[in-house]
Amino acid sequence: MPILLDGNNLLHRLPKSQRCRSAVRKQVLEVTRHETMSLTVVFDGPPPDGAPARELLGSVTVVYAGSRSADDVIVNMLPDGPAAKQYTVITDDRGLADRVRDRRAKVRRLAEWQGRRKQKPRPTKFESKLSSHDIADWEDFFAGRPGED
């Protein structure tokens, strides 16, 4: 399942001291290090001086949108028709998320992708409303032992 990540969206979620494209690249490479996923990070704007518009880093590809918006590049990377359902776009940008869903691709929020989503509360342990005598009767019944009357 190919994954497209809104690079600028992630960049602006980082602490101010880490807000740079190289920090995003580092985080993406760290998260995907033990995964076998194909992930493309798309940034707004041109690449850094001397860097190509498309960098291949193993299973991670970094794309710079140049004069186009990263949102437009991401949407245009989605295939037409049912094949788009196999793609996931990671973003918190509502406008982009709506456009992606219109193309039938999946959307995941950044926190979910980073593994920081809130855990669903676990169901509480089942507590029996039966008395110990009732439980003994049922145990005897299922064990094939007739109970005392």
List its salient traits.
Rossmann fold
User: Uncertain segments of ≥5 residues (pLDDT<50)?
Assistant: 116-121
Specify Rg, calculated over alpha carbons: 25 Å
Total beta-strand segments: 6
Question: Architecture, CATH level 2?
Answer: 3-Layer(aba) Sandwich
Query: What's the domain count?
Result: 1
How would you characterize this protein structure?
The chain has 149 residues and is of the alpha/beta class. The protein has a single domain, classed as 5'-nuclease (Rossmann fold), CATH 3.40.50. 34% of the residues lie in helices and 16% in strands. The protein has 6 helices and 6 strands; from the N terminus they run βααβββαβαβαα. It has a 6-stranded mixed beta sheet with strand order 3-4-2-1-5-6, with helices on both faces. The longest helix is centred in the N-terminal third of the chain and has 12 residues, at 21-32. The N and C termini lie far apart (63 Å).
